Amino acid sequence: MKPIYLYVWALCLLSLAVLPSCEKEFLELKPDKTLVVPSTLEDLQALLDHGAVMYTGTSHALAEFGSDDYYVSSATWQLLPRPEEKNGYLWAREVYEGRPVNDWDYAYRRILYANTALEGLSKLQPPPAQQEAWNQARGMALFHRGWAFFQLAQLFAKPYDAATAAQDPGIPLRLSPDVEAVPTRQSVAETYRQILEDLQAAEALLPDHPIVPHRPGKAAARQVLARAYLQLGDFAQALDATEGALQLSGDLIDYNALDTSAPFPFPPDGEGNPEIVFYSSQFALEILYAGRVQVDSLLYRTYDTLDLRRKAFFYYEGDKLTFKGSFEGAAHLSTALTTGELYLTKAECLARLDQPEEALHTLNRLLERRYVAGSFAPLTTDNTPDVLGRILEERRKELLFRGVRWQDLRRLNKDPRFAKTLVRVIEGRRYELPPNDPRYVWPIPDNVVQASGLPQNPR
């Protein structure tokens, strides 16, 4: 497999060239033309299995910097070494100070890998014995591209609005590995059309249950489709995608079986966690190190004392309430797709489609596995007057630090019932992010704009 690793290095250099976010000397590097370009099905599958590129370092960092899952003290904020973390925490108008932006670079690197695999696969005529493997490889490539486009859209494009989506600038939709192609921004409508097209095609090709655990299957494609449909406000389609995913992957952990007093209650690297539909993780974020990040005590108090998430997710370090509930089973954050999210999405869609009893029945299935055994009283329409509000509250409590909150804020801010003004206080100064503020769209990296001429997002 040595040629594959040589090729991966060459592809990394290509990604640096197509994503102008590194020093000039890197931009001038040319890959050795004698390096092997993957051409066999085995080689292309190996490219898609490159874990350090395709599964780790997902593009959720800016979303975490800006969300209301946490806060830091003024002293901690002053010590942060990266301007994107310091400025992102305050939703500043100038965020990057000319530095490269991992959320952009890593996503387009995954897209480059996916496009390279798709082009290579298009040149193969697999024999019948390899057709299933070819289908899986193509499905994986389409999944990774659609998943990366979706992540980029949550950061660098406006929230979807049917009235303006055809005019609102979206993201560059790289559909080939041609590094010479000049990037342009498609509309938000075109961006979501491509996301749906990629994921629908992936869902048709992927297996029900991948033989390699970290590879995506149909359930993963359906879950990202459900996320996209939530952003579009298409709750019927989101429900259909979610129910399809749950048919294949619906297991839940009974938190009574966890050692909630352990430093990290969940299995390391997500191994053996039955709730993980698709494994992915965030790169290290210094602002969210356990010794720095603090969880809002008001959020903490929304967890009932018999709710086991209270102990599984949080602990005190001195007087700091901090987070330990990553599905990575470690200090860094999981961005995995999970069945817990599927149940919450299904419940929300049912509530929005005027099926409150079914919505609460779905929510109860999740909550009864989160409470001390025998203590949970099922929710009914009699004891839960605001069904949708309760579901969204549980979504907030279940999915914090999973890279989901920012995209939820963006869509929920359109509804006055759920719109929220975010607040930070640093060095005695108050900073606010009102609902639907332009700063819910992060700026495109400075050096990308300079090199490509892409129109910048207003702040």
From TrEMBL:
Matching Gene3D superfamilies: 1.25.40.390
TPR repeats: 219-252
Lineage: superkingdom: Bacteria
Alphabetized UniProt keyword annotations: Cell outer membrane, Membrane, Signal, TPR repeat
This protein's record includes keyword Membrane: yes
Record's GO cellular component terms: cell outer membrane
Entry's localization field: Cell outer membrane
InterPro entries, A to Z: SusD-like_N (IPR033985), SusD_RagB_dom (IPR012944), TPR-like_helical_dom_sf (IPR011990), TPR_rpt (IPR019734)
Boundaries of every RagB/SusD domain copy: 340-458
SusD-like N-terminal domain mapped to chain residues: 25-230
Main subcellular location: membrane
Signal peptide: none
Record-linked SMART domains: TPR
Family: Belongs to the SusD family.
Protein name: SusD-like starch-binding protein associating with outer membrane
Organism of provenance: Pontibacter mucosus
